[in-house]
Amino acid sequence: MKKILKFTALSAVLLVLAGLMTSCNEQKEIRRGEGFCKQFTLIGQGILSGSVQQQQNVVIRTQGEWERFKTVIELQNLNAHETEIDFGKHMIIAVIDEERRTGGWDIAITSITEYPNGIIVDVVVTGPGYECPVPQMHTQPYHIVKTDRSGKRIEFEHVMQHRAPC
User: Fold this and answer.
1) Closest-CA residue to 100 (of 55, 36, 41, 37)
2) 110 class by beta-carbon count within 10 Å (0-12 exposed, 13-18 middle, 19+ buried)
3) CA nearest 47: which of 85, 100, 93?
4) Residue 13 within a domain
5) Can you give the pTM of this predicted structure?
6) Any domain includes 118
7) Count helices and strands in the chain by DSSP H and E runs
8) Between these two residues, 54 and 80, which has the higher pLDDT value?
9) Nearest CA to 126 among 148, 97, 151?
10) How far apart are CA 47 and CA 52, in angstroms?
């Protein structure tokens, strides 16, 4: 009986360990090895109104993708600093927050880190402070940057924070 219990307990432990080893999430896989910060430059940042309703993380690697993206987000509303991109050297990374019912929201790409197995884009979504007066209108913050081209897999990590109370 003791041998059966030991065998059952050992089997259970091995199954749990095997599950942990095979369920390694992709970001842990990307973060293996030394990472380095990629430089990026601002293409546009601001508030959309009514163009896109859902939150989006977008990686644009071709001129065709860029043209389609500009059409979808209605470039006239885009506070673009640069629209002509050399996609042989660069790519665009864009984050668009979900549509919010009030003003006071912001979204920002804070860092882009390249690892041997992929790239992590850190994004901070900032909401209004508690009891702060905000415009009562639908808004959708966006942030678009240009960085050196890479064919690696890109993952986004979003962090939510709120401003200090009023």
Assistant:
1) 55
2) exposed
3) 100
4) no
5) 0.78
6) yes
7) 3, 8
8) 54
9) 97
10) 11
**Confidence class of residue 73 from pLDDT cuts 50, 70 and 90?**
confident
Q: How far apart are the first and last CA of the chain?
A: 67
Task: Tell me if 18 is assigned to some domain.
Answer: no
Residue type at 92 in one-letter notation: I
- Cα–Cα distance between 103 and 47 in angstroms, integer? 9
Domain count, the chain: 1
Q: What is the pLDDT of residues 98-149, one digit of tens each?
A: 999 999 999 999 999 999 999 999 999 999 999 999 999 988 999 999 999 9
Query: Residue 158 is part of which domain span?
Result: 34-162
Q: How many residues does the chain have?
A: 166
In-domain check, residue 124:
yes
